[in-house]
Amino acid sequence: MQLQDYARVVLKRGWIIILLAVITAGGAFLFSKLQTPIYKSTVTLSAVPARPSDYGQTLAIKNLLRLYVQQLQSPGITQQVIDKLQLDVSPTKFVSYMDLSADEADLIIKIEARHPLIHLTPKIAQTVADTFVSFHNQENLQIDQRDRVLVNVLVNASSPEQFSPKTSINTLAGGILGALIGVLLIFVIEWFESDIIRSPEDIDRYVGVVVLGAIPLNPEPARARTVSRKQ
Length: 231
Fold this sequence. Notes:
Elements: H1 3-34, E1 38-49, H2 55-72, H3 75-85, H4 91-95, E2 98-103, E3 108-115, H5 121-140, E4 149-155, E5 161-164, H6 167-192, H7 200-206, H8 220-230
Antiparallel strand pairs: 1-3, 1-4, 1-5, 2-3
């Protein structure tokens, strides 16, 4: 098929593309609206050496960040947070409310809390951060001051914002998917009908023969009108 043939097919059956795009976009929008919103809030912790000029200690902290992430998810920390917030969940379930990441380049840990209750989300993130800092400070008491790693809250809990569902993105993706399915469908239909000749233009296009004349499909009405005019 040449380019003009593709354009002809799209113009001829473009309503199928539009219809499927509207249906899938509407379905994605409705699905998103039926989901329970999940909100997120983030706290940033910093970990710095007691002796900033000690390059060896800085390298050691990069390895310790992974340990700190594990400690943040340990029952010893999570159970304290559960008790402070008076939550009726297990430590294992509570861990599913958090997403933790360590940035070794900047020596920071990000604690992202995710929860369906918007007012509780920043409380979870902040309480986890404060509890860990207090726990780490207690550990530091047993270490020489020069060898300590100082962990502090660098950025307090951010204002909660919706994490999911992303209604606008889902709706747009649904519309695009529907349009693609529509394009595929119309070319499948066109392929099945490629052997059917309906007009003189089809004969010219597929056979390469110019149509000079055509026999009417139902000549009887024409003869009847001729007789009527003679009367």
